[in-house]
Every structure is written in C-alpha cells, then in structure tokens.
Amino acid sequence: MDKISVLISQEAIETRIQEMADRINRDYAGQKVHLIGILKGSVFFLCELAKRLTVPTTMDFMSVSSYGAGTEFQGRVKIVMDLSESIEGKHVILVEDIIDSGNTLAYLLPILKSRGPESLRLITLLDKPERREKEVPVEESGFVIPNAYVVGYGLDYGQKYRNLPYIGIVEVQKGENNG
Ligand code: IMP
Ligand code: MG
C-alpha cells in the first residue's frame, strides 16, 4: 500500500471549481461553450465544472500519449483518440487536469487552433509551474502546487488512485513492493 497524504481536500477542490465555473458563466454569457477534456485525467474536473455551468454547454474528449515507452519526453505527442466533432466556429475551453512540463499542450494547442475555433481558452485544475519546460498560455489554474507527484481527482499513479475524491501526495514506501 502506498501512503497518500491529503494535499487538497474535496471540499476545497469543489469550492474552487465553483469559482472557476462562475467565471466561465460570466465570461461566456450569451454564448455557448464547448468543453474539451483530455482523457483520462481531466474527466473528474470536467464533470464537476460542467455541472456548475449555466451557459449552454457541449463537450468532447480526446486522448493523447507521449511517443516512446521511456519516462523522458521525446518531443512528440500522439493523438490516440481524436475529437468526435468539429470545433470550427466554437468557443472552445480545453480542460486539463494538470500542467507539468507543458510539453503535451505545447504540441496540442497549435493543432486545435489550426482547426478554426472561434476562441480557445485553456484551464487546468492543477499547475506545477516549477516543472515547466514549454510556456503555455493558461487562462486559469485551480491550484498552483509544489513540485510533488500527486494523485486523485482523475490523476493516477500507475493507473491507480484516479477515483480518490481529493488530491493527495504519494509517499513511495522504500524497500516495499508496490502492488
Ligand atoms: P506535461 O506534458 O508534462 O505538462 O504533462 C501532462 C500530463 O502528465 C498530465 O496531463 C498528467 O497526465 C501527467 N502528470 C504530470 N504530473 C503529474 C502528477 O503529479 N500526477 C499525475 N499525473 C501527472
Ligand atoms: Mg493529462
């Protein structure tokens, strides 16, 4: 068992998501928004945000992965599953779980822009700016966090812990077999 300590409580997350939704409701009043979630991590955040939107909302998902099996980023990202609908002429909000190095979004944003959305905004639940390698234009971050590996609320550690209702820090136990 990994020891997980709470970094951000469920209550704090949901209070913050309400604030982020309030801002979208104000900024996009009289318009429609099209949310794009990057699977799988952003799903919990996207759902909680979408439930709090009062402007007409549609949503779509895509799945991306870094090329190669290594842990080092190799400069390329692969679209594993693309969007199911065109984003042309839409007010798109790209909803991310966490921005770490920025490599994924530095690759993805120009691709989405080239598809002709009316507008494109990036928001993220978590932001680890200390780790940034590529600059990305984040309109709003839920929480700026220190450089630690976090899980929960959609984020995984070896595909585990996505379902935790809070954000926690995994303390990897030394000399213990994981699993
Ligand atoms: P980036 O391209 O380095 O910004 O990384 C983006 C992706 O790496 C995120 O969407 C997450 O899937 C994953 N990631 C980065 N940091 C963490 C973390 O602390 N916990 C879980 N996943 C993370
Ligand atoms: Mg992600």
Q: Specify the CATH architecture.
A: 3-Layer(aba) Sandwich
CATH level 1 class label = Alpha Beta
The main sheet comes to: 6 strands, mixed
What's the gyration radius in Å?
A: 16 Å
Shape: globular
Ions, cofactors, ligands: which are bound? inosinic acid, magnesium ion
Overall mean pLDDT = 92
What is the chain-wise order of helices and strands?
Answer: EHEHEEEHEEEE
Helical amount: 10-25%
What is the CATH topology assignment? Rossmann fold
End-to-end distance: 7 Å
In total, how many domains does the architecture comprise? 1
Instruction: Walk across the major sheet and give the strand order.
Output: 4-3-2-5-6-7
Percent strand: 25-35%
Describe this structure in words.
It is built from three helices and nine strands, in the order E-H-E-H-E-E-E-H-E-E-E-E. Helix 1 crosses helix 2 (43-50). Helices cover 21% and strands 32% of the residues. The strands form two sheets. The chain has a six-stranded mixed β-sheet. It has a three-stranded antiparallel β-sheet with strand order 1-9-8. It has a single domain, classed as Rossmann fold. Strand 2, helix 2 and strand 3 (57-66) form a beta-alpha-beta unit. The structure holds inosinic acid and magnesium ion. Magnesium ion binds at residues 38, 41-42, 96-97.
